[in-house]
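The data layer described in this paper is built around a simple, fixed record for each protein. We quote a single record here, exactly as it is kept in our systems:
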Amino acid sequence: MQFDAIVVGSGITGGWAAKELTQAGLKVLMIERGREIVHGEYPTEMKTPWEMPFRGAGDAALFAREYQVQAQNRQFNEFTQANFVNDAENPYSTAPGTAFSWLRSYQLGGRSLTWGRQSYRWSDYDFGANKRDGHGTDWPIRYADIAPWYDKVEEFIGVSGAMEGLPQLPDGKFQPPMALNAVERHVKQVVADKFGRCMTVGRVANMTEAKPDEGRAACQNRSICARGCSYGAYFSTQSSTLPAAAATGNLTVVTDAIVEHVDYDPATKRVTGVRYVNTKDGTRGAATARMVFLNAGAFNSVHLLLNSRSEAMPKGLGNSSGVLGTQIMDHASTLSTIALFPEFGGRTSFGNRPTGVVIARYRNMDAMDGAGHTRGFSYQGGALQSNWGAGKREAGVGADFKNKLRSPGMWRMVLVAFADSVPRDTNRLTLDGVKTDRFGIPQLHIDFAHGKEEQAALAQAKADAAEMMTAAGGKVIMGSDQPGTGGMAIHEMGGARMGYDPKNSVLNKWSQSHDVANLFVTDGAQMASSACQNPSLTYMALTARACDAAVEMLREGAI
């Protein structure tokens, strides 16, 4: 069957591509490398720890043997392990000196089932950063180009948040915000009054108002989202974009199929379809289409482009510039501070709010005031009390011990810094020249390190965080200025960057290949810089925008 479009990947952007293209009347094939998951059929969602073989902690020996990387994810446990890849079956290689934890979810819905759901707009401080300080290449778009698409995405997925009027963190189409707790309200006031900075509740794709016409309920405040949410209260492909695409009758979904090659016709200078491997039996198949959208996740999409080399394009598909695979990024992140607030011991909170707080960027905006760095950083975190789980490592038995664990513990405030990852040519992806996976596909090779800019930003973030917590009456007990392992922010992006010039970028302003007019890459691979806020909302907005442009080009005969 000939399709109008093939969408490779079913995660956050793949779901959006399928929705937009099918609703425009196109026949779409979505190919997902992982297994099928039906919305609402989440086996561990409602289970309690005592119903699990390892009480929710999981099989430590199995995790050490087959999930060494994925087990580093704070969402990974016995309840959620099926929603993360088996590392032993999905290898990748790293360069000498590189430590990179590639955290992945291969199933229908991808990481839309396991993501942190933090949803922030970028501003022109972000889209203009490369031009301002000379790192990377200038974005070919600005905030005004993408603002209407942010509106569209937020209204559809459901984002709760507070309006703050910040130019560096633009407001959006929000549902009512979740509430700050007593400690957070206090710190928010101090941070505003003494420092002129804004702390707000995390803007999160967990709905505070139901969408009954779409079968989606309001958030139940369980904060077990990575198990899957049968209420549809948080945005996932399963709960939102996939039903919308399927309702058109224009969508075909194939799961358990790794796309290994995008086929290119040098005579027409167009892609013609894809070749894939069935992961269950190793057989190979092919599909054809008038255009292809890559939404496999930033590194996987770059991997596929590199592996789709041909006689006509020996350096990789769409790589006449030679920059494919370069300037990959992941936020430099660290635990900047933990502070105790014992005076709030008489206060407590109820429920498990599935978001924290954010202190918006305040450095290197209108004035360059960074100490050794030219970009920004922001904080995420929140105030919380220790709960009964603290007793797991204490000796005790009987009523007195149980009553002690029932009593709310000490309040502490945690701030984690996220700093811009500056685009560098030395941070790059290549094909491993020796190692392959079990299907004979060359492994992806990662070369990555944070640099002086990131180190300086995190050093300042640590000092600033301690200053703010002390001013609020907190007792700082620890803090770090060292970035975590690459990949641990789970915000990997870049490698097929957008730009004006085909000589130094892979994609144009429509997320369209400079070299191949009917090829689009609309996941994180297209990013030309990282900003310091979560990128997923921007991926989705750029995807919706690219689909609109692609449909118009197709109708006009331009592709």
Remarks:
- The chain has a mean pLDDT of 97.
- Residues 536-556 form the longest helix (21 residues).
- Residues 97 and 449 are 8 Å apart (CA to CA).
- The longest strand covers residues 284-294.
